[in-house]
Amino acid sequence: MSETETDPVAQEPPQAPEREAPERETDLAAAARVLDEPGGLPAALEAILMVADTPVPTTQLATVLARPEAEVEQALQELVEGYEVQHRGFVLREHGGGWRYYSNPVFAPVVDAFVLDGQTARLTQASLETLAVIAYRQPVSRGRIAAIRGVNVDGVVRTLLARGLIEEAGQDPDGGANLYRTSTYFLERLGLRSLDELPPLAPYLPDLDEVNEPGTTTIDLGDRS
Q1: Residue 202, pLDDT score
Q2: 199 & 129 share domain
Q3: For the chain, which has fewer Cβ within 10 Å, the N-terminal or C-terminal residue?
Q4: What is the pLDDT of residues 182-191, one digit of tens each?
């Protein structure tokens, strides 16, 4: 009886050793190299501000780029002047506590036509009055706002919150009511650096200590809600 030979176990051919991926520079090292090139800092500022949703303070830009704040400020001013000389369709401005790109006011008519496209979403008179009270008397509660305006403002306050023009600012230590203040977006929309640039309208509003909560004597400004 002949022995049956068995096929040797097939062996997989040896695989070539994996090639190690070339070492990549760290993001920080790459950024430092770019910043050291001529025009690197202004270009880096442009790259950051192009993707910013809100105004970026100079201090934050300096921290991210690891550059002195004075150097960053100078580079920003050079960008501002350069855009003005080039008559670009956008401008760089410092508003709302930081820097951000805006469309050039010269082209406002065509920008409005594109953005609005025949549809306008304006604030009502009631919203404007309520927003003014909050801007000049912040932080302020709904009850105080209602007392100044002489009408219920619950719906208007919800609208302003939804549009991001105001935000909650804690609670009244006396009664526990929610307090409201204007937002950074409010400053941005009005083109202001801070609330100090608001026009002097406050003297025309009553002091909060002269205003009673709803249910008592209030200042009657008419029902414009």
Answers
A1: 54
A2: yes
A3: N
A4: 999 898 888 8
pLDDT tens-digit readout, 154-184: 889 998 998 889 999 988 888 788 999 999 9
Q: Tell me phi and psi for residue 106, to 5 degrees.
A: -60, -30
- Measured at the CA of 72, the angle between CA 68 and CA 75, to 5 degrees, comes to 140
Give burial (CB, 10 Å; 0-12/13-18/19+) of 83. middle
| Residues 89 and 155 occupy one common structural domain | no
CB 182 within 8 A of CB 168: no
Residue at 119 is within a domain: no
Q: Are 183 and 164 in contact (CB under 8 A)?
A: yes
Query: Could you tell me the residue range of the domain that residue 140 belongs to?
Result: 125-210
pTM, rounded to two decimals: 0.46
Residues 48 and 105 both lie in one domain:
yes
